[in-house]
Specification:
The protein has a single domain (10-194), classed as Vanadium-containing Chloroperoxidase, domain 2 (Orthogonal Bundle), CATH 1.10.606. The protein has eight helices and no strands. It has helices at 10-31, 36-48, 53-65, 67-95, 103-106, 125-140, 145-161, 167-194. The longest helix is centred in the middle third of the chain and has 29 residues, at 67-95. It is globular.
């Protein structure tokens, strides 16, 4: 069994190939969904989520109406989004240059399409930022946990539904964002306790 920069073990290669196959099959299954009533709403969600706009808008509202706790939650969420964007859009996307899905060949209906990003597919920055914000703010203001996580899940699904990401891109993006969101909220809690 080789380690470091050598050839990966055969068992690992087999597992990765199996995961890749499932990822593509799941993407194709979503493409075949006959749900035209979802096309426009999910296209809108996917487009609006560009540049984390819903999360910055939510942070502004939470800061404006939530008092000191709301301001701390908003700041924590914005910092989590910034840290996640840095990690996902730089080292992670550069480390694994996965091509975007071929929507036409897979049969994603054109009524679902949003502009195809020029960046690599893995991982999903939209899902990562959404999960980071939802977890970070939800840790500070628990009553917002469920609606924010539902919103993050819709954003993640919209990226597969519109054909710009494989499900695995979304899952890994969301897991990365959630981990960074949790770390950010813990650091913010320590800082708050000290002051």
């Amino acid at each position: 069994m080789e380690t470091g920069l050598g050839k990966p073990p055969d068992a690992l290669v087999r597992v990765l190939r199996l995961l890749e196959r499932w990822d593509r099959l799941t993407y194709a299954a979503v493409a075949r969904m006959s749900t035209p009533f979802l096309d426009e709403p999910l296209r809108v969600v996917s487009r609006v989520a560009n540049h984390s706009k819903p999360w910055f808008a939510t942070a502004a509202v939470v800061a404006a109406v939530g008092g000191p706790t709301g301001r701390r939650a908003a700041l924590t969420g914005v910092v989590a989004v910034g840290a996640t964007s840095l990690v996902v859009n730089q080292p992670m996307k550069l480390a694994r240059s996965r091509r975007r899905p071929d929507r036409l060949a897979t049969g994603v209906p054109s009524s679902r399409w949003v502009p195809m990003p020029s960046s690599t597919s893995f991982p999903s920055g939209h899902a990562a930022s959404a999960a980071a914000f939802a977890v970070a703010v939800g840790d500070v203001v628990p009553r917002l946990r469920l609606p924010l996580r539902l919103g993050a899940a819709v954003v993640g699904f919209s990226r597969v539904y519109t054909g710009v990401h494989y499900p695995g891109d979304v899952v890994i993006g969301a897991a990365t964002g959630a981990a960074i969101g949790r770390a950010t909220s813990r650091v913010a809690a320590r800082i708050s306790r000290r002051s």
